[in-house]
Design brief:
The structure holds 2 protein chains of 2 kinds. By secondary structure, chain A is mainly alpha-helical. Chain A contains 12 helices and no strands. Chain A folds into 2 domains: 45 residues, no CATH class; 215 residues, Orthogonal Bundle (MetI-like fold), CATH 1.10.3720. In chain A, α3 crosses α6. Chain B is mainly alpha-helical. Classes of the chains: A mainly alpha, B mainly alpha.
Chain lengths: 282, 295
């Protein structure tokens, strides 16, 4: 049945086609190398660690490096979690409500909102950083975790709104009309029709906001002091210092990457969908 | 009627977000522009108007010229590298090989990691130490007798930034692959079949038919990768710290503002970044929003 194009279809069928695994496996190695370095270095004992043997497998499984990194990073991992979880939840609620209203009700000027939101998604944050820092200082939120949550929620509005908007635009008009005939007003339509089918969009947006807030460095380094540093800033600081050995840095990198990696492994399909939504909205 | 009430309620629900984006994005941009035209230097704000002085100063500033050069090199290597690798991988995965889903996820996972983690790991893999202290990629090259590949990596004079672009390619090429794969999958089989009936070879089909059809994907990818490249900040700091030969506008902006307290100059770098991203994004948004309406 399937006569899918294959570059090598005419060239001799099966065996030639399987040669394609050579570049694929080569690229697999390329993508896995940094992960390999983080893992094997982390599992080596302190005595065993040396830059000259960085590619060798560990002789036994030790957790010294992970313990050392964990001890250093624990408060910052906590900071990251206490910043990222509320940021992701609030962002997705805000995005859902915005997306719903914009997808169903037109008001004067609603057309201008989309290009303005889209552009807001792409701006380099360096162009708003000075006012942001001054403003956060003035309202007393600079340096705090709630301040960082607020920043992620606000700068997340464009992408969360547009993702939900795109999703809600696929809801059949008949469904909405039926609800209106039944007498459901705006909030009723949202609660009884839109909210119950929103789970996929919520997952996409939650994952997206979770990863981008977790991985953020610029806002964190500009708006928090060392006590409230999220893990990205703490890791960078650890890596920049001369005192902390590189093997502990490797273990720390893995710890800092683990939450988003887990989200990716467990919910990768949705993650991809979120990326596509973010990218192709334009 | 209730419709009118609904309209008011709807407006009230989105108003906070509109106000927030209005202030935090557009209001702050305007505020930054004002700072960039001021002589503000030091801890207390000083909005005395100095016109284009900060901008003109940048174009004679050797550090900023290094930044521009580095941004150009980084962008070229990163964008071209990610496009070529992404397209190559997408074509490979489009051949319906077993294990496709596995490879697709594998090539994409670096996207989930922060630039800081990527940078910290790549810094050690790109260790330029020589002799007895050789390690990282250089060690592998030496053991494989590929000594000509041994490199100073990011410490290479003038071109060091290209080595950091390699780490960025590692992180973003899988994503580019996913964009292209989506594009390839949307090209109908009939089209390929028709070309085949006309006697086109498989390579010709890719070159003459499929690649031109992927042009919109390429355009999106260039926009997305290009704007990441203009803003690059954390990756470079994580690989190399803040050193002059590897400086970029985002790092200069941060240092001159928050370490040096030259707010006026910092704001002008921020606005120049905004203008360059806008030059990339606005035509694209205009084009795609218009064509959406035509459909």
């Amino acid at each position: 049945m399937s006569s899918r194009v294959s570059l090598f279809r005419n060239g001799g069928g099966f065996r030639v086609k399987y040669l394609l695994f050579v570049p694929l496996l080569f690229m697999t190695v390329f993508y896995l190398v940094p992960l390999y370095v983080m893992l094997v270095t982390g599992f080596k004992s302190f005595e065993e660690v040396s830059l000259q043997t960085m590619w060798n497998l560990p002789r036994g499984i030790h957790f010294d490096n992970y313990f050392a990194a964990f001890e250093k990073l624990l408060p910052h991992l906590k900071n990251s979690f206490s910043m990222v979880v509320p940021a992701a939840i609030i962002s997705s609620i805000v995005g859902s409500i915005n997306g719903f209203v914009l997808s169903r009700w037109r008001f004067p000027g609603s057309q201008i909102i989309f290009p303005l939101l889209l552009f807001g998604m792409f701006i380099p944050y360096q162009s708003i950083l000075i006012p942001l820092v001054v403003f956060m200082r003035n309202i007393g939120l600079a340096g705090s975790i709630p301040g960082l949550v607020l920043v992620h929620v606000i700068y997340g509005i464009p992408i969360t709104t547009l993702t939900f908007y795109g999703y809600y635009m696929t809801v059949p008009k008949e469904l909405v009309e039926a609800a209106r005939i039944d007498g459901a007003a705006l909030l009723g339509t949202y609660r009884h029709i839109f909210l119950p089918i929103s789970a996929p969009a919520f997952v996409v947006v939650l994952i997206w906001q979770f990863t981008s807030a977790w991985n953020d460095f610029l806002f964190a380094v500009s708006l928090t002091g060392s006590v409230n540093w999220p893990v990205t800033v703490a890791l960078q600081n650890m890596a920049g210092s001369q005192i902390i050995a590189w093997n502990v840095q490797m273990a720390g990198s893995l710890l800092a990457a683990l939450p988003t990696l887990l989200v990716y492994v467990l919910l990768g399909r949705y993650f991809l969908r979120g990326l596509m939504a973010g990218a192709l909205k334009g | 009627m209730s419709n009118r009430k609904d309209n008011l309620l709807g407006f009230a629900l989105v108003l906070p977000s509109i106000v927030a984006v209005g202030i935090f994005v557009y209001g702050f941009i305007a505020w930054s522009v004002r700072v960039s035209f001021s002589q503000w230097k030091g801890l207390t704000p000083d909005y005395t108007f100095v016109g284009l002085k900060n901008y003109l100063g940048l174009f004679q500033d050797p550090r900023f010229l290094i930044d521009v050069r580095n941004t150009v090199i980084f962008t070229l290597v990163f964008v071209l590298g990610s496009l070529l690798l992404g397209l190559g991988l997408a074509i490979l995965l489009d051949q319906r090989l077993p294990g496709e889903a596995f490879f697709r996820s594998l090539f994409l996972f670096p996207m989930a990691i922060s630039f800081i983690v990527t940078g910290v790991v790549w810094r050690w893999m790109m260790n330029p130490a020589a002799g007895d202290r050789i390690s990282g990629f250089n060690l592998i090259f030496a053991q494989l007798r590929l000594d000509f590949l041994i490199s100073q990596w990011h410490l290479t004079p003038n071109w060091g930034i290209a080595a950091i672009a390699l780490a960025a390619i590692w992180q973003m090429s899988g994503y580019t692959m996913a964009l292209y794969l989506g594009g390839l999958r949307s090209i109908s089989e009939e089209l390929r079949e028709a070309a085949r009936v006309d006697g086109a070879s498989e390579l010709q089909i890719y070159w003459r038919i499929i690649l031109p059809l992927l042009w919109p994907v390429t355009l999106s990818a260039v926009i997305i990768l290009g704007h990441i490249s203009l803003k690059v900040f954390d990756l470079i700091i994580a690989v190399a710290g803040k050193q002059l030969p590897l400086d970029v506008p985002a790092i200069y902006m941060w240092q001159t503002t928050f370490d040096g307290l030259f707010y006026g100059r910092g704001a002008s770098i921020g606005i120049l970044l905004l203008v360059s991203v806008a030059a990339l994004i606005i035509p694209y948004l205009y084009y795609s929003l218009r064509s959406e309406r035509e459909i």
